[in-house]
Amino acid sequence: MGYLLNCRYNLSMKHQKLRVLAPFLATLTLISVAAPSFGWGVVGHRYANGLAVDSLPDSLKNFYAPNRAWIVAHSSDPDQWRNKDRSEAPHHFIDLDFWGMDAVKTFPTDYWTACGLYGKAAVDKNGTVPWRIAYLEAKLTKAFREKDAKGIIEISAFLGHYVADTHVPFHAATNYDGQLTGQKGIHARFESVMVERQIKDTDLKPLPLVHIDAPAMTAIEWAKVSLNRSFEVLASDKESTAKDAQYGDVYYTELGKKCRPIALNALQESGRDLASLWVSAWEAAGKPELPAPSDVHSGEPLDKPTTDPDTPAKPETSVPVQNSAPSPKAETPVKKP
Asked: What's the pTM?
C-alpha cells in the first residue's frame, strides 16, 4: 500500500463528462425549482466531513475540532482538481458491475492483481477510487508519524471526498446516470436535488467507529454496497417518474420515501468510515502525541483554492497501489511510510 505510480488514464469522454458536470447539472436543476444549492459534490461532502470530525474520540477530536471549518469547506476540492484535469476523474469511482455481477463478489483488492486479470487499461478506465483511498491513508499515517499538523488536516479533508464518493450509489455502477435504462438525470436527482431538499446536517448521527487496516479491500466492500443501492434507487425513480414525469414536488416526495433513507445511511456511513480511517492511520503511526490544537490555516482565507499535492509536472495522474511492488515503468515510486 502506498506506492505512487505516474500513469495515464484512458477514460471515455462520455463517462468522464457526466461525472465532472454532475454537480453543475444539479445546480441548474435546483435553480429551476428556486432552491439555491449544490450537489452531493458540495452539500453531501460537507455533511460527511463534518460528521467525521464529530464522530472522533476525544484523543483526536481535540486536535481536529479547531480545523473543522477548513475540513468541511475543502471537502470537495478533489472535484475542483478533476474539473481542471481529466486524468483525476478515475479516482472518484469504480464501476464494479463492469466486470460482471459474479466478478463483483471476488473482485481483487490488489491493483496489480486486478490489472493482471482484466488488463490495466480497463481497470484504470473503470475507476480506481479504492486504491486512491489506500494511498491517501498511507500518506495520512506518514503525516501522523511526522506530527505534520497541516498535512494531517489537509490529507484528512481530501481523503474524505473519495470516501464519500465511494458511498454514492452511482459512483459504483456503469449505469451511472440511468443512461442504460432510460432514466438519464437520476444521478443528480438522487445525490443532489433530493439530498438538498430532504436532508439536513442535523439529521445525521454519528455511528460507532471501526478499525480499518486494509483500506483498498474495505473501500471495495463499500462500493459493493453502493452498487446494490443503485438498483434500489433506479427502481424507485421509475415508480416516482410514473407519478410525476416532470420531476416536480410529487416526484421528489415519492422518491424520498425509499431513497431518503438510502442517502441518509450512505452519508452517515461516509462519516463513520472517514473517521475510522483517521483513527486507524493514527494508530498505525503508533498513536503519537499530536501537536497542540490550533487552526493550522489561521490567517488564510477559508476558501483559498488548493491543488492536488501529488500532481506531477507532466500531464499525468497518480495511481495509488495497495500491497504490490512498484511497476518497472514507474518514474518516481514513493514507498509507503
From this structure: 0.82
